[in-house]
């Protein structure tokens, strides 16, 4: 058995600690499964449904195209592409696919591939026909606009010409005037050489290009053209681009074929759509009637085509989720099959995978069912392998413990069976948050919002939420714990939106006599026992409130910090004990414990003694002169009998613990390494030459790996980090005091400067405005920004101050092959 399996056996017998689901990761084993080829697919399907095997890639040296099931994965990819095409078409048509799985029976994979191909071909054909019909329909609509507008041009021109002719005839005198035509109509009719035949081109041009279009036409024909334009009231759909464009109807009159050629080229360059038109009024009416009839026919045909397309898409939408899930399953199964090694006989597939020890019976049951259901003559073989390879880390979590475990995993995945900080984080994280956020009014607001999420969790879990809402919903039980602890610490601080209440009895202080005008600042005497729970409400508003609360919260922060750091150091002991690492117990755990408690454990003891005795001793002076002048008498700062001797002993222990941490461990590691390899060099040589070569190579490799200088430097860094960290980490816990003070002062400012100030005006309008601003300020600043700030600071205290005392976090997470997780994956 390998080292890790010995640990598993030790844990099964009890070990040094009682088994806990979260305290240590699940015992893992490396297994080999030999699967007949004919039942491989069904076997992987059953194992994927079980979701308790992390397969190793035994074909890492092969490219994706060289693997056994490359063609099947290619087929799955093609089917996934077709499904994405269907999804896009449904989105364009405004058809929503059903999120619920259809009750249809199992679909064969090959049959589904044929079905998807047929549906894709049908949809492409329908879309192509609809596009052609829609283009023809849009062209006819444009043609109808040209017919209507151009007819108006000709009618207005003929009317104007007839009126002008009548006017000329009525006023014609003498030799004529400037308005008299140079060639009379009679001359034009009798002399064909004087007749001028004008041609014209009609169509539509984009409105934004109309001015440039006219200018280019004028220059190209040198002014030998006449252009009439009219804007179309509503934008029309361009037949080529399919987009709505504002257009103008135009008619260009010209003379000569050269001018016509130039005009046609210009129309093409400007994207102007040309349509035929006649100046014969009768033919115009006939063309309008024909175009109108064609528009009606095309509209009917297009609607029928769209109905047919929608019918196809609705049928697809009913089965889309089932098809999509099946394709994802097949692709995942074949991807996993590609990680398996093909036997020399090409009749079996060999798999190696990590699995939890508790899952052995479930895996064997799945293998037997797969062999039976696939009618395989040979069953799969399940073997447990012995290895020194480090297994993955697997914690079984639920919806309550999962967010706390995610906090730990964000820092780093625990080493296999390393002590898991997630167990303690369930309590310490929300508690440290609440120390900074303590206000039972704000805690109730958090509690109510969280209870809404919890009460609707079934409905919300099936919906797509935004990123921020998704995080809040996933951590709803963490927020619940944070809210409950905030209510608890708020009751201790006696703050409800910064307002104190006498919830647990009357204040211990009262006014000395009836002449006491301000009972919160002067003339107070203690008339009864101490306030039973939390801070006495009389402190709020007094002149000494800030100094009292500062002293209380600062000392409380140090006590909490030293307690949590000691917990971290004790967890390093349990790690060392579990992994049978006596060097870490004697030369890491013990000196670290002595150093931390010789200084800051002693400070915590002085704080508690001072609270219990009511002494006026200056702890700053005691701690500073403990280093600067350890033999000096303490005088009025003495809190304990024989305190000077105690301080000298603690100071000596702190100094001794530094070389204790630094030197013995590297030296003993070097000694152990030398003894191990010296013993190996005198063992009997046995086996063939190949095994001897492997052993020599392995031995030389181990010698190369061990470098005393590197080990010593590594230990030196850890020693310096711990010594300096003990000071900086203890100071870092003062953020509990700072953020608690900031939260309390902000809450007090909002209450006094918004609510009380608005109340003092005796104006209902100002009061309503003050209440609204108070609500928005409380929600925006105290319930959102302050919550986020306290959360981040609590996160830092766990990651840096607590977990660095024992947590290595250099493991890798157990990622099983699970078909149940495919539904959560995005396309």
Walk me through the structure:
The protein has helices at residues 3-12, 40-50, 70-93, 109-171, 185-190, 210-220, 257-269, 281-337, 360-373, 402-411, 422-437, 440-455, 457-461, 467-474, 476-493, 545-578, 582-613, 619-628, 643-662, 664-681, 689-705, 708-732, 735-760, 764-802, and strands at residues 28-36, 54-55, 199-206, 225-231, 236-237, 244-245, 247-254, 273-275, 341-342, 348-356, 381-385, 509-511, 524-526. The strands form 4 sheets. Strands 1, 2, 9, 10 and 11 form a 5-stranded antiparallel β-sheet that branches. A 4-stranded antiparallel β-sheet has the order 4-7-3-8, with helices on both faces. Helix 2 (40-50) runs antiparallel to helix 9, helix 12 (440-455) packs antiparallel against helix 15 and helix 20 packs antiparallel against helix 22 (708-732). The chain is extended. The chain is an alpha+beta fold and 827 residues long. Strand 5 and strand 6 form a beta hairpin.
Considering the chains and any ligands shown, give keywords for the structure.
827 residues; alpha+beta; five-stranded antiparallel β-sheet; four-stranded antiparallel β-sheet; 24 helices; 13 strands; extended; disordered N terminus; ion transport; hydrogen ion transport; ATPase binding
């Amino acid at each position: 058995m390998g080292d890790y399996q010995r640990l598993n056996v030790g844990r099964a017998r009890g070990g040094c600690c009682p088994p806990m689901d979260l305290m240590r990761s699940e015992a893992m084993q490396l297994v080999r499964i030999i699967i007949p080829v004919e039942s491989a697919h069904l076997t992987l399907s059953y194992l994927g449904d079980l979701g308790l095997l992390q397969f190793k890639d035994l074909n890492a040296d092969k490219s994706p195209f060289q693997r056994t099931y490359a063609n099947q994965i290619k087929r799955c990819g093609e089917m996934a592409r077709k499904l994405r095409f269907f999804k896009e078409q449904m989105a364009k048509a405004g058809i929503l696919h059903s999120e619920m799985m259809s009750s249809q029976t199992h679909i064969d994979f090959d049959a589904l591939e044929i079905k998807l191909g047929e549906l894709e071909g049908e949809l492409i054909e329908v879309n192509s026909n609809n596009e052609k019909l829609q283009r023809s329909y849009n062209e006819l609509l444009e043609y109808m606009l040209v017919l209507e507008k151009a007819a108006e041009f000709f009618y207005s021109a003929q009317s104007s010409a007839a009126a002008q002719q009548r006017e000329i005839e009525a006023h014609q005198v003498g030799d004529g005037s400037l308005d008299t035509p140079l060639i009379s109509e009679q001359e034009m009719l009798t002399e064909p050489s004087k007749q001028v035949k004008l041609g014209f081109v009609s169509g539509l041009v984009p409105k934004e290009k109309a001015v440039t279009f006219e200018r280019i036409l004028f220059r190209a024909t040198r002014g030998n053209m006449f252009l009439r334009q009219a804007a179309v009231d509503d934008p029309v759909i361009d037949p080529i681009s399919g987009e709505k464009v504002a257009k103008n109807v135009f008619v260009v009159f010209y003379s000569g074929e050269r001018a016509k050629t130039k005009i046609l080229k210009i129309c093409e360059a400007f994207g102007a759509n040309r349509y035929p038109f006649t100046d014969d009024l009768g033919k115009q009416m006939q063309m309008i009637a024909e175009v109108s009839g064609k528009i009606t026919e095309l509209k009917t045909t297009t609607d029928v085509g769209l109905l047919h397309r929608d019918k196809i898409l609705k049928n697809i939408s009913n089965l889309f989720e089932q098809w999509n899930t099946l394709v994802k399953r097949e692709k995942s199964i074949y991807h996993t099959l590609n990680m398996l090694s093909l036997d020399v006989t090409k009749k079996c597939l060999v798999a190696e995978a990590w699995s939890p020890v508790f899952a052995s019976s479930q895996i064997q049951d799945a293998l037997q069912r797969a062999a039976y259901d696939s009618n395989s003559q040979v069953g799969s073989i399940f073997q447990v392998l012995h290895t020194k390879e480090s297994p993955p880390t697997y914690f079984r979590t639920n919806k309550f413990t999962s967010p706390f475990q995610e906090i730990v995993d964000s820092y780093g995945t625990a080493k296999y069976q390393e002590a898991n900080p997630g167990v303690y984080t369930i309590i310490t994280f929300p508690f440290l948050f609440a120390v900074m956020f303590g206000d039972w009014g704000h805690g109730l607001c958090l509690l109510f919002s969280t209870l809404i999420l919890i009460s609707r969790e079934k409905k919300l879990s099936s919906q797509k939420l935004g990123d921020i809402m998704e995080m809040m919903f996933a951590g709803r039980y963490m927020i619940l714990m944070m809210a409950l602890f905030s209510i608890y610490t708020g009751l201790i601080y006696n703050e409800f939106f910064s307002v104190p209440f006498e919830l647990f009895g009357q204040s211990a202080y009262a006014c000395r006599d009836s002449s006491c005008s301000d009972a919160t600042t002067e003339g107070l005497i203690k008339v009864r026992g101490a306030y039973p729970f939390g801070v006495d409400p009389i402190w709020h508003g007094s002149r000494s409130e800030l100094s009292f609360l500062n002293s209380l919260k600062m000392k409380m922060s140090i006590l909490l910090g030293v307690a949590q750091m000691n917990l971290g150091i004790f967890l390093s002991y349990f790690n060392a004990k579990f992994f049978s690492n006596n060097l870490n117990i004697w030369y890491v755990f013990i000196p670290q414990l002595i150093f931390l408690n010789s200084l800051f454990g002693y400070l915590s003891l002085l704080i508690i003694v001072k609270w219990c005795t009511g002494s006026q001793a200056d702890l700053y002076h005691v701690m500073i002169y403990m280093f600067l002048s350890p033999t000096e008498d303490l005088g009025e700062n003495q809190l304990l009998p024989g305190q000077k001797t105690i301080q000298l002993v603690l100071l000596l222990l702190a100094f001794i613990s530094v070389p204790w941490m630094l030197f013995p461990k590297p030296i003993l590691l070097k000694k152990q390494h030398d003894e191990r390899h010296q013993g190996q060099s005198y063992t009997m040589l046995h086996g063939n030459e190949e095994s001897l070569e492997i052993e020599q190579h392995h031995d030389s490799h181990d010698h190369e790996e061990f470098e005393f200088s590197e080990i010593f430097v590594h230990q030196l860094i850890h020693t310096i980090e711990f010594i300096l960290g003990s000071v900086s980490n203890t100071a870092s816990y003062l953020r509990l005091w700072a953020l608690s003070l900031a939260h309390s002062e902000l809450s007090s400012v909002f209450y006094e400067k918004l609510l009380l100030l608005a109340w003092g005006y005796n104006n209902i309008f100002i009061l309503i405005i003050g209440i609204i601003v108070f609500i928005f300020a409380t929600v925006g600043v105290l319930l959102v920004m302050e919550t986020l700030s306290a959360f981040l600071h609590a996160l830092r205290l766990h990651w840096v101050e607590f977990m660095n005392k024992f947590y290595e976090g250099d493991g890798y997470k157990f990622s099983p092959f699970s078909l149940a997780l495919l539904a959560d994956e995005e396309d």
